Write a sequence for this structure.
């Protein structure tokens, strides 16, 4: 169903019969419940020395590391997730639904469980990690690469789902036309398919990035917590909360602003203006 | 359309189940407080996990079923929670620093136990760690507790006494996390309390730190002023300081409060 059709349908439903009037009460409560915590954060924000809080060495380190890790996770997700989305959308291989469920499981899995699972798989004694250690001397826990891995583990499904949806919704006749005109599969993908699914891909990247940036449970469980190496912003917020509330609030505010920015960038996809 | 609606229904059903499962614990504990036996919430340092669980059970048995709910975490986290108004009745910290942080919110603290540090290594000590001096080896993956965690601060003091600089691979949130990183085999060594090596089970063992490098950790306990169960809170604190309480602490490897 296209966005336009969905919009038209929704508008028709509203005019035909409105919601029960008392829905306004739980609705307003829901808005308050979701918005008041944000007000709490803004209310306590040390506006006067916000800049000083954000440019403290620990905050800068966390900001820099969070950028590196989240962009790394997006890169890993693009590299592996886009081909996966393509396969899921276009090839009717046996067990496709199972594979789709398996690869999106980490979206709903508690991140700390993901962290434990990663440890048991890629840890020094893990299923794969043991071999990595013995064969290449590579250990992932306590490294920035480990933090990227943890973030990619929870964030990649967002990119896969969004990309697959885009691929399914697009008009395949353009691809067929490109093929008829002699374009190979790779050329068609690059020159025709990618531009056509760019909005979905963009939305997927934004969601994936936001999720990676906010990752906490899997990171602290799998990668540990060391400033400059694995202590990303959410971890820094958690640690600072116990010692330096002002710094924790300042860092939280940065994450809030980024989340808002991602949301606004997606507004045309998610909140079509009536 | 229909399929997606069925899927949505399935997702909602699973969510509801999860919520119900999460809510289960809350119901049982709040159910306890509404019935006649009283309930107290004890916030205790992570290193007290095993010993205070036992003391809690003993206390409940000795006090007409007064329910003891325990909240274990790094003392610095507990102090913050109390500052932010968490409903604690008793606070047992692994250091005086974090007790001082909440001194306006608690009664007069009393030292109830002491502890010492040990190096925790994997069973069999595969890396041959003999003392703090070995921990600066760059090939050794060492985890420490974060500097704000009591045991992290004590670790820094001990390392300073031994004149050793350690670059840890991770700074953990409480002493139990340090032990678990070693028992999982991810880290080669960590510095923890003697009592946590014992509690860590048969996957780990301890390497002694000599007296002149070691640190005496002292554990203060206090009732929280905002508590609505002052009597029970005081009774619990008294119980910890009583012979029975001290006996339990001793059985888990804690030392008596330093004589002063």
């Amino acid at each position: 169903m296209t966005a336009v059709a969905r919009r038209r349908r929704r508008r028709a439903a509203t005019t035909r019969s409105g919601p029960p009037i008392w829905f306004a009460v739980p609705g307003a409560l829901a808005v308050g419940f979701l918005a008041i915590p944000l007000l709490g954060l803004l209310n306590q924000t040390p506006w006067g020395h916000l800049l000083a809080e954000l440019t403290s060495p620990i905050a800068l380190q966390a900001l820099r590391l969070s950028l590196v890790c989240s962009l790394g996770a997006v890169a890993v997700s693009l590299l592996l997730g886009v081909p996966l989305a393509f396969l899921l959308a276009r090839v009717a291989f046996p067990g496709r639904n199972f594979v789709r469920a398996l690869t999106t499981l980490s979206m709903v899995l508690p991140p700390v469980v993901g962290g434990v699972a990663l440890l048991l798989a890629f840890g020094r004694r893990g299923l794969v990690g043991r071999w990595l250690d013995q064969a290449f001397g590579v250990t992932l826990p306590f490294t920035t690469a480990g933090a990227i891995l943890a973030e990619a583990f929870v964030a990649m499904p967002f990119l896969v789902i969004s990309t697959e949806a885009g691929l399914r919704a697009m008009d395949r006749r353009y691809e067929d036309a490109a093929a008829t005109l002699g374009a190979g599969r790779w050329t068609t993908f690059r020159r025709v398919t990618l531009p056509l699914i760019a909005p979905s891909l963009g939305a997927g990247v934004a969601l994936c990035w936001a999720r990676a940036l906010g990752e906490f449970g899997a990171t602290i469980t799998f990668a540990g917590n060391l400033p400059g190496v694995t202590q990303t912003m959410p971890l820094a917020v958690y640690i600072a909360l116990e010692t330096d509330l002002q710094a924790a609030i300042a860092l939280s505010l940065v994450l809030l602003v980024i989340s808002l920015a991602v949301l606004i960038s997606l507004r045309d996809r998610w909140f079509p203006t009536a | 359309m229909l399929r997606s609606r069925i899927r949505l229904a399935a997702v909602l059903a699973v969510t509801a189940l999860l919520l119900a499962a999460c809510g289960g614990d809350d119901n049982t504990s709040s159910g306890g407080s509404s019935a006649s036996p009283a309930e107290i919430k004890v916030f205790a340092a992570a290193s007290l996990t095993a010993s205070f669980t036992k003391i809690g059970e003993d206390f409940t048995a000795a006090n007409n079923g007064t329910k003891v709910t325990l909240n274990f975490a790094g003392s610095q986290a507990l102090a913050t929670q109390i500052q932010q108004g968490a409903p604690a009745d008793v606070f047992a910290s692994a250091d005086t620093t974090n007790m001082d942080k909440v001194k306006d919110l608690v009664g007069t603290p009393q030292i109830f136990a002491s502890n010492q540090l040990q190096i925790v290594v994997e069973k069999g000590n595969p890396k041959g760690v003999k003392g703090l001096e070995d921990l600066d080896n760059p090939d050794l993956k060492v985890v420490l507790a974060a500097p704000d965690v009591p045991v992290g601060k004590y670790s820094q003091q001990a390392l300073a006494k031994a004149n050793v600089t350690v670059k840890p691979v991770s700074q953990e949130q409480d002493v139990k996390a340090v032990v678990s990183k070693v028992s999982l085999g991810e880290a080669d060594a960590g510095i923890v309390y003697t009592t946590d090596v014992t509690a860590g089970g048969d996957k780990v063992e301890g390497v002694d730190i000599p007296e002149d490098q070691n640190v005496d950790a002292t554990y203060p306990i206090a009732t929280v002023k905002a508590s609505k169960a002052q009597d029970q809170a005081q009774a619990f604190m008294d119980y910890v300081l009583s012979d029975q309480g001290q006996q339990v602490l001793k059985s888990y490897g804690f030392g008596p409060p330093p004589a002063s």
Q: What stands out?
A: Residues 2-34 of chain B form the longest helix (33 residues). The first strand of chain B starts at residue 39 and ends at 45.
